[in-house]
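The protein record filed here:
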Amino acid sequence: MNVGRLLESERAAVEAGLERLLPPGDAWHRRLNRAMRHAVFAGGKRIRPILARLAHAAAGGDPDAITLAACGLELIHTYSLVHDDLPALDDDDLRRGRPTVHVAFDEATAILVGDALLTEGLGAIARYPEGASWAPGRARAVALVAAAAGALGMVGGQMEDLEATGGVDGPDAAERLQRIHRHKTGCLLQASVELGAVLAGVEGSGRERFARFGERLGLAFQVADDLLDATATAGEMGKSPGKDEAAGKLTYVTLYGLDRTRRILEELEAELGLLARELEGPDGALGAVASFVCRRQS
């Protein structure tokens, strides 16, 4: 499978869905809409909605039927980036190769953009796909994503990430690192895979298999991100590199070093290959995306 062509085709579907969900830049309120579009249409891999579409297909569904719900995941993810870049959190001036929202606009606007994107994202998952037959799936999907994005998921992980700054040598550093990555990054990635399965009507052990794949993929994504922060340039990453180490952040690289972190990522890639084959057979789209995540250069 040519993963480049697959991702290009999937991104095109997601971009079209995001255009449908977001108001035009000249509609009321113009400044808010322009800032939202600045954040959302800054590029990005669109991994979360792509995973939802591919998981839905692996479970026997039509991925085009759930595109707008999947795009809700991207809005929620983008909200988290906008807020994470704020001076009070990671204080970054660059995201996806362009000025962050608080730099391009102002800090107050960035806060409101994040608020709006979170709300619109959950709204999209609550509304789509339309029709009474989808209602049970929509309800399960909203509950799933709200839990993944909330205090016991992504936001809780962000809070612990702040608390762990400067504590790379603590006695519980390894356990804490796992907890941060599982929640800050992993929860929404796991929910993306699981959402595709839920909207296809998958329940019980079948849903658990999709969730397990998503959980391991979320960890692999963050391990790869830690490596990139330590080794890539700003041009390659589209954001400021080296900030984690400079800020005393707890990461795989600061805890284990580059060589061991690379080995951990290789082990995760092998495990993901096995999990993907259980879900879709050999040479499937989910397996290809998992390899892309583990080997990405930006």
